[in-house]
Structures are given as structure tokens and as C-alpha cells.
């Protein structure tokens, strides 16, 4: 069984291969020049261009790379980032019909991105070792997909507004915000909506901690903090999360260019997913 994921899992092609999966890199464009993230442009170079005033865009993995991943005699399980936050799921679903063996290609909407998406892909690799069919792997992943929660603390709200990933109410609110907004993924995973308006970044993290507690996050869950060149903020957030959720596992990650295109420089994502079924899953 071949496990495929797009680079929302924050792995390069080489890093993914070392972990048993095939990575399809998302693309970013600045001034009509396009690069594959992690392969042709680094996060550091990308951020330098954006901070110099460039207006970036992101797009799905190139179709020819997706079709190459589907060109195999094996069953293919392709776990894409959240439908609605990206067009990757819809594009992959269409391309699967062009595969040499379309009946063997299974495209799954992860309904998440970044660290929880990574957890799902890594879990799929492990499940593929002991499940005969992709359908069995998908069935075991569904509770994990349903357990994921994502929150975003943007420094510049304009990136979210331009990217169209907001609910209509949140998009209207974007013109008015003067404080520290905290966004959360909608229940269907397709958009971001306002969770809270905080007076400071630290108050925003407290709002996320409170919401995670309300949602029953606790022992056996994995909590991540991913950031766009904001190690100080990420470090403070992680310390606070560790203090609040002592029974969880934790990880800090650097966001890739495609996500930064939507969240903006210095943004911080706080996410969780239930990994009780995979207590030894290596999330590095």
C-alpha cells in the first residue's frame, strides 16, 4: 500500500520517503514565479521575500506529480489537507479518475493540516503494515480525523482575508480588528471562524487553552505549536500548554511557505489530535 500526503504535513519529499510516505509538495507563487515548497524554496527565503513586500499565493501540488504517485500496482491512500482550506482534496479526487487503476486510489480529506495532518499520515504508514486493504486503514483513521482541533493566532489578519479561508462573518470582522484575534477551524473543517478577541497574544493563548479543555483534550492527545519564524511566541505558548495538559505529548514545528501564505509571517498555530491509539508514534 502506498501512503501519499501533500506537504501540509511539513515534510520534504526526502523526509517523507524516510518515513514511508510519498510527499506531493504544495506550490507558492510570488510575482509570477512559482516554487515547490521544501524543494525549491526555503521558509527563510520565502519569508524574506514576503517581508520585503511580496504578495504570495499558494496552490495545489502539480498534477503530474500526483499522477506519478498514483501510477502503481499497489493500492494508494492519499491523505490531503482540509478540503475548503485548500483545493488539494478536490483536485486529487479528480486526478484519481485518470490513474492507471482508479479503483485502487483512495483520496481522503484529512479535514485538518500541519501537525494533525502529519499524525494521520504517520499513523496510516503504521496501519498499512498490518491492514490488508486501504479501506481498513481509512476506517481506523476516521476517529483520529474527528478528534483534531486547530487554532490560529495571526499577527497580520490581512493574509487570512485575502486567502478567502474565513467564514463571511469573520471576513467582515477582519476590517475591524485592532486587538489579537484567535481563529478556530469550523466543525466541518472548511473555514476559519473567530473564537475570541484577546487584548494580547498571551491572552489569546489562554483562550485556546480554555477551549481545548472544553473540548476534552487530555491524556493521550498530541498538542502542537507551529510558527512562522516566531520562536519566542511559540515557546511561551508551548510552556503554557505543557502546564495545562500534563498528560499530553507535545511538539514544536516550523511552518512551511504554503501555510504562511495564508496565516502570514509570525503567525502561530496551536493544534491537537487524539493519539491514544498510537502512543509510540514518532512525530518528528
UniProtKB/TrEMBL annotation:
GO terms for molecular function: lipid binding. InterPro entries: DegV, DegV_C, DegV_domain_contain. PROSITE patterns: DEGV (PS51482). Gene3D superfamilies: 3.30.1180.10, 3.40.50.10170. Keywords: Lipid-binding. The keyword Magnesium does not apply. Pfam families: DegV. SUPFAM superfamilies: DAK1/DegV-like. NCBIfam families: DegV. This is DegV family protein. It comes from Paraeggerthella hongkongensis.
Amino acid at each position: 500500500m502506498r501512503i501519499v500526503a501533500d506537504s501540509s504535513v511539513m515534510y520534504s519529499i526526502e523526509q517523507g520517503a524516510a518515513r514511508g510516505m510519498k510527499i506531493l509538495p504544495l506550490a507558492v507563487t510570488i510575482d509570477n514565479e512559482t516554487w515547490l515548497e521544501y524543494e525549491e524554496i526555503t521558509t527563510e527565503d520565502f519569508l524574506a521575500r514576503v517581508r520585503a513586500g511580496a504578495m504570495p499565493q499558494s496552490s495545489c501540488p502539480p498534477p503530474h506529480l500526483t499522477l506519478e504517485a498514483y501510477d502503481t500496482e499497489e493500492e494508494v491512500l492519499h491523505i490531503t489537507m482540509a478540503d475548503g482550506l485548500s483545493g488539494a482534496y478536490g483536485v486529487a479526487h479528480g486526478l484519481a479518475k485518470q490513474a492507471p487503476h482508479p479503483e485502487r486510489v483512495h483520496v481522503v480529506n484529512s479535514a485538518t493540516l500541519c501537525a494533525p495532518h502529519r499524525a494521520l499520515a504517520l499513523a496510516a504508514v503504521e496501519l498499512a503494515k498490518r491492514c490488508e486493504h486501504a479501506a481498513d486503514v481509512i476506517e481506523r483513521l476516521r476517529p483520529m480525523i474527528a478528534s483534531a482541533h486547530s487554532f490560529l493566532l495571526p499577527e497580520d489578519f490581512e493574509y487570512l482575508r485575502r486567502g478567502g479561508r474565513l467564514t463571511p462573518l469573520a471576513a467582515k470582522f477582519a476590517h475591524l480588528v485592532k486587538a489579537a484575534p484567535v481563529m478556530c477551524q469550523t466543525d466541518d473543517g472548511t473555514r476559519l471562524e473567530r473564537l475570541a478577541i484577546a487584548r494580547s497574544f498571551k491572552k489569546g493563548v489562554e483562550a485556546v487553552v480554555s477551549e481545548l479543555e472544553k473540548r476534552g483534550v487530555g491524556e493521550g492527545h498530541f498538542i502542537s505549536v507551529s510558527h512562522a519564524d516566531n520562536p519566542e511566541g511559540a515557546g511561551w505558548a508551548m510552556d503554557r500548554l505543557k502546564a495545562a495538559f500534563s498528560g499530553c505529548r507535545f511538539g514544536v514545528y516550523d511552518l512551511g511557505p504554503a501555510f504562511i501564505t495564508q496565516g502570514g509571517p509570525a503567525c502561530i498555530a496551536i493544534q491537537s489530535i487524539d493519539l491514544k491509539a498510537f502512543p509510540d508514534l514518532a512525530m518528528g
